[in-house]
Design goal:
The complex is a heterodimer of chains A (about 300) and B (about 290).
Chain A: H1 3-8, H2 23-50, H3 55-59, H4 71-80, H5 88-119, H6 125-134, H7 144-153, H8 160-164, H9 171-181, H10 186-194, H11 199-210, H12 212-227, H13 231-236, H14 245-252, H15 261-281, H16 283-293
Helix pairs in contact in A: 2-15, 4-15, 5-9, 5-12, 12-15, 12-16, 14-15
Chain B: H1 11-38, E1 41-43, E2 50-52, H2 56-63, H3 65-97, H4 103-111, H5 118-129, H6 135-142, H7 153-181, H8 185-193, H9 198-209, H10 211-228, H11 230-236, H12 248-258, H13 262-292
Antiparallel strand pairs in B: 1-2
Classes of the chains: A mainly alpha (about 300), B mainly alpha (about 290).
Family (chain B): Belongs to the binding-protein-dependent transport system permease family.
Membrane topology (chain B): Multi-pass membrane protein
Function (chain B): Part of the ABC transporter complex UgpBAEC involved in sn-glycerol-3-phosphate (G3P) import. Probably responsible for the translocation of the substrate across the membrane.
């Protein structure tokens, strides 16, 4: 029953009925929300506009709020030459590889381990589950140098494998899949067994299709996670071949005196566009997935 | 919770678990164990021999006034980020939850900053608050308010707090909105019929019912402020000026990477590990309790 219906029949004091609060509170709500929206768009707008001006304009401190005429050459300069010797095109490629591999890898590794834990009985099952679970308490930041040493002993420094594999285990994704698998009715498993389907067949034909929504939601969260990695690539990817765009952009600002701010701004736009696009385009799954994953 | 009907076999499940467990052991447990072990060792000046020194790294650490200063910075920073990010998100979520026109559009417009990397958020804030090329920074200096976060420690702290909180608002917003929408409208209607004003309704009904969400976000925001904001600090201030924005995680990085003091850096890793374990334990204990209600 909606608010309006409930209160219409009763003679209420004007203040108490939500629908009769009049235009003023709504107006205030709109104003505050618009201010909030503006607060998030303004920095992006400044960077977007700045990326279409030449270096001198920005260096003089004239923060342009309208588009200029140097968009094409700035973005071309960024993509082909970049700032500190690495073309941003290359960085974009590296970030894409890293984000995709982390998202897909984490989902794949987690879904099969959750399947093993939920649909089988075997020795040390609980121990296996708890060892995965406990990694929640060991974020890469607290074991950074020993982990770096392992990666360097394995000869994986400055490789995609070194960037990706050490952070590809996922307690969060495993927990989410486990939670979901526990809700699959027993009848499904019995029916499959009756039809003579083994665990692999059941996984491919029943579990995988049922998990599509969860996989989509996790993909958004993990793509953003992978794209936005900072401390780990900062240590492990020191060569130009594997530099990611977030790291590359910050390095461009290194020596402030001769920073090409317009190129930094163009790079900044390119660095934030892919993950924002993924979140906006997959918003429906993302919101559902986020609020369910983390609780 | 357990399934009643399961498949038979031992080799297959172990094979399915193998990749995750292998990565967990090689890149999580082994390094974490090493960090704990190294925290009890001290290397000589040439890095050739190391001797067992017990808790000396820890006692040195907590006797170091600079480390205590780092703890203070971390407390100020985390509190600032958490309070600002939670309060802003709650305000926006409460307003977007009301049945006003376009609330769906506001939701879309407020969700996307989730995707922005902390380091990218920091760079965006440079263009707002840089004393020479930033929109607001220049205006402040032009108005006679001396503003330079690269020289003034308090301004630097304010900058990293605001940039970090800015990035976290949309995450909190998503959760607050989901929490608000799960509150039964009949409860609020009943209060409205009793003549409770909107503000009174919020503090006596909505806010208490929202407390599980708020508590969950409190822990998540603290973890974010402790660990994920490394990029913000590295891009904006590199811990400066004069270590004014050096947090625990940044100091651990500097000691390990720049000063190459593995013992001291490992001791800091262990301290940080204890912090995460404590925060995670609090969170799960709380969730456990909520399930029993």
């Amino acid at each position: 029953m909606s608010t309006t219906e409930t209160t219409r029949g009763l003679a209420l004091p004007a203040e108490a009925a939500p629908h009769r609060q009049g235009p003023r509170p709504d107006w205030v709500a709109h104003a505050v929300l618009l201010l909030g929206v503006l607060l998030f768009f303004l920095p992006i707008w400044i960077v977007l506009m700045g990326s279409t001006h030449d270096a001198a304009t920005i260096g003089r401190g004239e923060v342009p709020l309208l588009p200029g005429g140097h968009a094409l050459e700035n973005y071309r300069a960024a993509l082909e030459q970049g700032g500190a010797g690495v073309p941003v095109g290359r960085m974009l490629f590296n970030s894409t590889v890293m984000a995709l591999a982390i998202a897909v890898g984490k989902i794949a590794i987690s879904i099969i381990s959750a399947y093993a834990v939920v649909f089988f009985r075997f020795p040390f099952r609980q121990l296996a589950f708890w060892s995965i679970f406990i990694t929640l308490m060991l974020p890469v930041e607290v074991r950074i140098f020993p982990t770096f040493k392992v990666v360097s002993d394995l000869g994986l420094v400055n490789t995609y494998a070194g960037l990706i594999i050490p952070i590809i285990a996922s307690a969060t994704a495993t927990l989410l899949f486990r939670q979901f698998f526990l809700t699959i009715p027993d009848e499904f498993v019995e029916a499959a067994k009756m039809d003579g389907a083994g665990p692999v067949r059941f996984f491919l034909d029943v579990v995988l299709p049922l998990s599509r929504t969860n996989m989509a939601a996790l993909f958004v969260i993990l793509f953003v996670y992978g794209w936005n990695q900072y401390l780990w690539p900062l240590l492990v990817a020191t060569s130009a071949d594997v530099e990611t765009i977030v790291i590359g952009m910050v390095k461009m600002i290194g020596s402030e005196a001769n920073t090409d701010w317009n190129i930094v701004m163009a790079t900044c736009v390119l660095a934030l566009l892919p993950p924002v696009a993924v979140v906006v385009l997959m918003q429906r799954w993302f919101v559902k997935g986020l609020t369910e994953t983390e609780k | 919770m357990e399934r009643k009907v399961v498949f038979r076999g031992k080799a297959l499940p172990l094979a399915l678990l193998a990749p995750q467990l292998l990565i967990t052991i090689v890149f999580f447990f082994w390094p974490a164990g090493q960090a704990v072990w190294f925290s009890f060792l001290r290397q000589d000046a040439f890095g050739i021999r190391s001797t067992f020194v017990g808790l000396e790294n820890f006692t040195d650490l907590f006797a170091d006034p600079l480390y205590l200063e780092t703890i203070r910075n971390t407390v100020v920073f985390s509190t600032g980020v958490t309070v600002i990010a939670l309060a802003t998100a709650l305000l926006l979520a409460v307003l977007a939850d009301r049945q006003i026109r376009g609330s769906g559009a506001y939701r879309t417009l407020l969700i996307w900053p989730y995707a922005i990397a902390p380091a990218v958020a920091a760079v965006l804030w440079i263009f707002l608050f840089h004393p020479q090329i930033g929109l607001v920074g220049r205006a402040l200096n032009g108005a006679g308010i001396p503003w330079d976060y690269k020289l003034n420690g308090n301004q630097a702290m304010l900058m990293v707090i605001l940039a970090s909180a800015w990035k976290q608002v949309s995450y909190n917003f998503i959760f607050f909105l989901a929490g608000l929408q799960s509150i039964p409208k009949s409860v609020l209607e009943a209060a409205a019929i009793d003549g409770a004003r909107p503000a009174y309704r919020f503090w006596t009904i909505t806010f208490p019912l929202l407390s599980p969400t708020t508590f969950f976000l409190l822990v998540v925001n603290l973890v974010y402020a402790f660990f994920d904001t490394f990029g913000v600090i590295d891009a904006l201030t590199k811990g400066g000026p004069a270590k004014a924005t050096e947090t625990l995680i940044y100091r651990a990085y500097v000691d390990g990477r720049v000063n190459l003091d593995i013992g001291l850096s490992s001791a800091q890793s262990v301290v940080l590990m204890l912090v995460v374990i404590a925060l995670t334990a609090i969170q799960f204990r709380f969730i456990e309790r909520r399930v029993h209600y």
